[in-house]
Design brief:
CATH superfamily of chain A: MetI-like
CATH class of the largest domain in chain B: Alpha Beta
Distance between the termini of chain A: 65 Å
CATH topology of chain A: MetI-like fold
Strand content of chain B: 25-35%
Strand content of chain A: under 5%
CATH class of chain A: Mainly Alpha
Number of strands of chain A: 0
Radius of gyration of chain A: 23 Å
Shape of chain B: globular
Oligomer: heterodimer
């Protein structure tokens, strides 16, 4: 009667676990699909983003292009590519790579742009080559924002990857499409819950990773002072204290 | 020796930052470029290590045109100290100091040991070696910046308003430290500032710049104070007012120097007794013993 309890029952039914169409296999496929898509998108977006961030050129084009890419309906693109290259995993890979590029690109170049210009200028003035500036200054300092971009790309891809099942026998989307066809709402909802759980787990991992990649020197200079100033001290006392530092 | 020959720099937006500038910077001395903003002083400094390339004219270091040198290699051979230290926030103090030696391929252990010694040189405790720049005070950061500038033992040290962002007490401390260091090391220092007091304190040779990098006057502090070239220089150095416009007043048989506001600035010693002015580096000016200054 209750869809939700039915879905939980479906999830807990041991019959849905073994084999290539079982829950673990589908979860694995979904995860694999997400990772491959992110790698494809990163290979394209990160170097371009670094180039834009480092040179400061082509930003306008990047913003316009990624805005355009974001506006493309993924299902429409998926159908289009599938009609063109045929049924199978090729079309979803293309469609979801297109979906993942804008946030990664934005993360890559905004990360570089967020680095203090004076720091980069000083690095150049003491004799770093452009490549060394990228490697030793811009990448480490811009990494948190790049990871942020990867994080939002991951979230979009892992959820939207259910569409891969539209044109291929692949991923958690199978449960949704199969359930839809047979009016098996327990299976549909169960599949959806699995997608949501996977997305939450990945989100949690990235949240942790994002904290982890903040360079220590940047981290130590920041949070303790802010936290104290905003929560432990009365607002009126702030200026007097911070001025002395 | 650094030589500017008819150097002009026009930026792409049409600003003429430096117009036909010529100057000889002697070796092992401190030359200060002083002027207000827009005088092109920082542009001039940055042309020495090719952070900026001149539109026309040449800059030579010991007879070699910098334009013929590879920028990265040139920069690694010249110390550079900037305002706000410009340290890498994600690297520790010792790694920051060792940055350039490591780029030049000095083994890590050697570079680290050298960097620790440089911390001593600039008056920093080795205990802060493993801290990050954000954990240091402004004054300490500037000292680290100086240590990094000295890390490759360069002949030339470029300093771009290095003490501009620290409070007056720390600034005075750092200035004295630089005088001591320069006494020990004898680098060719090119120092940019807008603070004429700092220029007089640190400079062996001072170039007072007007807009467009035109030299209003070039000389030692004493020469400039004694004979300001024109009204611009006189007003810039404050020779016509305040604590620089001193006159002698007799008080109880002793000559007291009084500034233009009537506040005593010091007493005149040495010349009255006939003995020459004693000791000071700039012995061509009367030696002034400061009195207790009025409360600030």
């Amino acid at each position: 009667m209750n869809y939700f309890t039915d879905a939980v029952a479906w999830l807990l039914d041991p019959a849905h676990y073994p084999g290539p169409t079982g829950i673990p296999a589908r979860l694995g496929e979904q995860l694999l699909f997400t990772v491959v898509t992110l790698v494809l998108a990163s290979v394209i977006a990160i170097p371009v983003g670094f180039l834009i961030g480092h040179t400061g050129r082509g930003r306008g084009i990047a913003v316009a292009t990624s805005g355009g890419l974001r506006a493309i309906p993924t299902l429409g693109l998926l159908t289009l590519v599938a009609l063109w290259i045929g049924i199978g995993l090729g079309a979803p890979y293309v469609a979801l790579t297109v979906l993942a590029i804008p946030p990664i690109l934005a993360g890559a170049y905004t990360g570089f742009e967020a680095v203090n210009r004076a720091t980069i200028d000083a690095a150049r003035a003491v004799g770093m080559t452009e490549l060394q500036i990228v490697r030793h200054v811009e990448i480490p300092l811009g990494l948190p924002l790049l990871i942020g971009g990867l994080r939002s790309a991951t979230l979009q891809v892992v959820a939207t990857a259910t569409l891969a099942a539209y044109v291929a026998d692949f991923g958690l989307g199978r449960f949704l499409f199969a359930g839809l066809k047979t009016n098996d709402y327990a299976q549909m909802l169960g599949g959806s819950i699995l997608v949501i759980l996977l997305a939450l787990v990945l989100e949690g991992l990235f949240a942790g990773l994002q904290k982890l990649v903040v360079p220590r020197g940047v981290a130590v200079g920041r949070p303790p002072v802010d936290r104290k100033a905003s929560t432990r001290r009365r607002p009126g006392m702030e200026p007097a204290i911070t001025k002395g530092i | 020796m650094i030589e500017f020959r008819s150097v002009t720099k026009e930026f792409p937006d049409g600003t003429l930052a430096v117009d036909d500038f010529s100057l000889t910077v002697p070796s092992h001395r401190t030359t200060v470029l002083v002027g207000s903003s827009g005088s092109g002083k920082t542009t001039l400094l940055r042309m020495i290590n090719r952070m900026v390339d001149p539109t026309s004219g040449t800059i030579e270091i010991d007879g070699v045109s910098v334009a013929s040198l590879e920028p990265v290699k040139l920069r690694r051979s010249i110390g550079y100290v900037m305002q706000n230290s410009g340290l890498l926030p994600h690297r520790t103090v010792v790694d920051n100091v060792a940055t350039v030696p490591l780029l030049r391929g000095v083994p890590r252990r050697t570079a680290r040991a050298d960097a620790l010694r440089l911390l001593d040189t600039v008056g920093l405790d080795r205990a802060i070696a493993d801290r990050y720049p954000s954990q240091l005070s402004g004054g300490q950061q500037q000292r680290v910046g100086v240590a990094r500038g000295l890390a490759v033992d360069p002949n030339i040290l470029l300093m771009d308003e290095p003490f501009g962002a620290v409070d007056p007490i720390v600034r005075a401390e750092l200035q004295q430290e630089l005088i001591r260091l320069q006494h020990e090391l004898g680098k060719t220092v090119v120092f940019v500032t807008h603070d004429i007091d700092e220029a007089f304190l640190l400079g062996d040779q001072i170039a007072i710049l007007r807009e467009g990098g035109r030299i209003a006057q070039l000389g030692t502090p004493a020469e400039i104070l004694a004979n300001p070239a024109d009204d611009f220089v006189a007003s810039f150095v404050g020779a016509d007012r305040g604590k620089r416009a001193l006159h002698v007043e007799s008080q109880d048989g002793s000559d007291v120097l009084v500034d233009s506001d009537g506040r005593p600035a010091g007493v005149l010693v040495g010349q009255r007794s006939g003995a020459g002015p004693s000791g000071g580096a700039r012995s061509d000016v009367p030696h002034i013993v400061p009195t207790e200054g009025p409360p600030r």
